[in-house]
Amino acid sequence: MPQEELLHEIKEGVRFWGYEEDGQLLGVMGLQNVDDVVLIRHAYVRTEKRNSGIGGKLITHLKSLTNKPLLIGTWAAADWAIRFYEKHGFKVVSIDEKNNLLKKYWNITERQVETSVVLAEV
What is the value of pTM for the model shown? Predict the structure, then answer.
């Protein structure tokens, strides 16, 4: 993510947490409070470190930080991301609910709405 976009996201209220080993940042995940929910935003793990538990540690930590419902939006084609979130207690919502949630809590284009899914904590 370019620095300008990162600063914009921080200004919009996204708080980031990172996972480090030996002084190297290996994973990042953010939370954004929006009205009555919390969005998990910008979840990334370095490619060579995927499937090593880093994402799971980050999401477990973030889940412990709020009592509000958690939502995640991601690309519908990102099968690996959807499987990851499902493994960690989230479920893809219906198309109608997805459309309503994306329009209510995210500021994205109509094309992004069409090509995304939303997962809610179960």
Answer: 0.91
Total number of domains constituting the chain? 1
Tens of pLDDT along 59-111? 999 999 999 999 999 999 999 999 999 999 999 999 999 999 999 999 899 99
Cβ-defined contacts of 59-66 (< 8 Å, 24+): 59/29, 59/85, 59/88, 60/88, 61/17, 62/17, 62/29, 62/31, 63/88, 63/89, 63/121, 65/31, 66/31, 66/33, 66/38
Pairing mode, strands 15-21 and 37-45? unpaired
In the chain the first and final C-alpha atoms are separated, in Å, by 30
Q: Is 22 left (phi over 0), alpha (psi -120 to 50) or beta?
A: left
Domain hosting 107: range is 3-121
Pairing of strands 90-92, 15-21: unpaired
